[in-house]
C-alpha cells in the first residue's frame, strides 16, 4: 500500500486514432480531495485523458485505476462518477427535479432520501425553488449550476468537469469559477477539471497538469507552473513574455554570464528552462521576461541595487482596469510590460526608464 | 440567490427602447418587405387556388347533391349521401378496414423503421448517406412496378409460398395476396422511407452528450435509450406515424393491386363509385368522409402526445 492514497491513477496510457497519437504513454496520479486541472491547447490530449477516466474511451495500452480498483474495461455507467459537460447536457424533457433524481433513482435511493439530497444540493448551488423548471426555462449560468448539482447529488467517487465554463459569458464564468472552487472544497470530492483557459486553471486548481501533443509537460501547483516552468512549452503557453537573444560568455556553476546586446548580465542557473540545462561559453540562448516583472519609472533612480534602468520610449498605452499594459521601445526593440504605478504624465512618445532584476530572467538554450 | 434572468424578456425590452423616428422607419421597411414577399408568393398561391382549392370545393358541393343530375334546376341538395354512408354497413366496415390497415402499416413501419433510423443516427456521415440512399431508393421505382414485385413474391404459387412449402413449414399456400396481410406488407414497404427519415431527423437533433450524461449517472445503454433517446425522438415518431397513416389512408394502387375486391379500402371504393358506377356525388361524399377521418385521427393523435407528460419534447 502507498502512503498517499491516489483516487485516480493512470499508468502508461496510450491512445491512437488511426495514425494520430493523441496520448503517448502518460502517467497521472490524482490525490484524494484535490482539484486537478488538465490544461493545454486543443488536441493536446486533455479531453482524451478525461474520457479515459470517465470510461467513454478505452486506452490502447495502459490502465486506469479509480480508488485503487482497476477500471480499464469497466463501462462508464458502472464507474460511479459525476460529470459536467461543456454543453450542460441537461435532459431537456425533464424538470430540474427529474434531472437530479435521475441518478438517484438508478441507485435505488428511497423517495424521502432523494428529496433530502436534492434539496441539499440545490441549496449548495443556489438554485432552490427552481425544481419544477425545464432546462429551456433557465439561463446558461443556471443550467450549468443544475448540471453541477446533478453530478454532485449522487455523491460520486470523482467529479469530472469537461470545460464547464467555456459556454458562459465572462462575468458568469468568473462567478461560477469561484463557486466550483468553494463547492469542491466544501464537499471535498476529488475533481478533475479540463480547460484550455490558463487563467481558469491557475485560479482554481490545487495542481495543474500542462499537456501538449499527447504528453504531460509539467504537473505542479499553479504558482510553480507560472514561476518555474519546466519546459519551453509551459513557459510559452502560460502567461505572456518578452523574448531576447543572448549569448553565453561564461558559466561557473552558481551564475551564468550572458551578453545581451551591449550589456553583460548574470543569471542564476535555476532559471534555465527545459531539458538542456548545461550551458557552455558561446552557446546561443533565448531570454524571456514576463511583462509584470519589467519595472517602469519616470526617473532613472531605483531602490533595487541589482536593477539598472534604461531609457525607453512609450509607444502604446492600454488601460486594463486594474493595471496598465505599456509597450515601450527599448534600443529599437518593442517590449511589453504591465504596471500598477502609472504616471498620469505618460503619453505616446514619453521618455521613461525601464529595467528588470536579472533574477526574473528565464533562459532557454537555442 | 441569483436573480432570475429571463433573456427572452431582455431582448424585448431592448427593442422597446428604440423610439420615435427610427421605429416608424423600420415599420415602413417591414411592410415593404412583407409586400415583396407576397408578390413572390402570388404565382404559387394562384396555382394552389385554381388547381387544388377550387376542385376541392367543387367536390364538397357535389357531395350534397342527391340526384344524378349534377347541376341546373333539377339538382336536389340534401345530406342523403352522408346519411347512406353512415347507415350502410358496407361503407362503415370499409371505413373501419381502412383505419385498421393504416394503423397496422404504421405499426409495422415503426417497428422496422426505428432501428434503421437509430443505426443512421449512430453512423458516420458517410455511412449515413449510404443508408439514406438505400432507404430512399424504393421511391425511385414506380409504386405500380414495386407492387407487381410483391405480387410475384406473394402469389399462391409465388416465391414465398413455394419456399415455405418446400421446407415443409406449410402444407398448402398461405393467403398472402388479396388479403389484409398483403396490403399491410405493401403499404408498410411503400411508406417505410417516410417513417425512417422522419425519425432519423429527430434523432440527429439529440445532443450526443445527453447519452454520455445518462451513462455517467449510472444508466445502462438500454436504460439510456428508454429514458433519454426514445422520449426525445417522439416528435420524429409522431410525424413519421402521421405521414405513414395519412399516406396509407389515401393509398389506392397498393390496396387495389394487392387486396383486390377482398380488401375494399375507402380509396378503392371511391374509385369504383366514380369510375365504374359513375356515382360522382356519392363518391364525393365518401372522399370528404375519408378526409375527415384522416384529419381527425391525425389531430387527436398529435394532440394526445402534445398534452402527454412528454409535452416538453414538442416545444
From TrEMBL, chain A:
Protein role: Part of the ABC transporter complex PotABCD involved in spermidine/putrescine import. Responsible for energy coupling to the transport system.
Family statement drawn from the similarity comment of this UniProt entry: Belongs to the ABC transporter superfamily. Spermidine/putrescine importer (TC 3.A.1.11.1) family.
Subunit field text: The complex is composed of two ATP-binding proteins (PotA), two transmembrane proteins (PotB and PotC) and a solute-binding protein (PotD).
The species this protein was found in: Cytobacillus citreus
Protein known as: Spermidine/putrescine import ATP-binding protein PotA
Gene that encodes it: potA
Reactions catalysed, as given in the entry: ATP + H2O + polyamine-[polyamine-binding protein]Side 1 = ADP + phosphate + polyamineSide 2 + [polyamine-binding protein]Side 1
Residue ranges annotated for the ABC transporter domain, each copy included: 8-238
Enzyme class: translocase
SMART domains reported in the protein's UniProt record: AAA
Automatic annotation (TrEMBL), chain B:
Membrane topology, from the record: Multi-pass membrane protein
Signal peptide bounds: none
Subcellular location(s) per record: Cell membrane
Ranges where the ABC transmembrane type-1 domain occurs: 95-301
Domain of life: Bacteria
Principal localisation: membrane
Family (UniProt): Belongs to the binding-protein-dependent transport system permease family. CysTW subfamily.
UniProt-recorded name of the protein: ABC transporter permease
Species per Swiss-Prot/TrEMBL record: Cytobacillus citreus
Organism lineage string: Bacteria, Bacillati, Bacillota, Bacilli, Bacillales
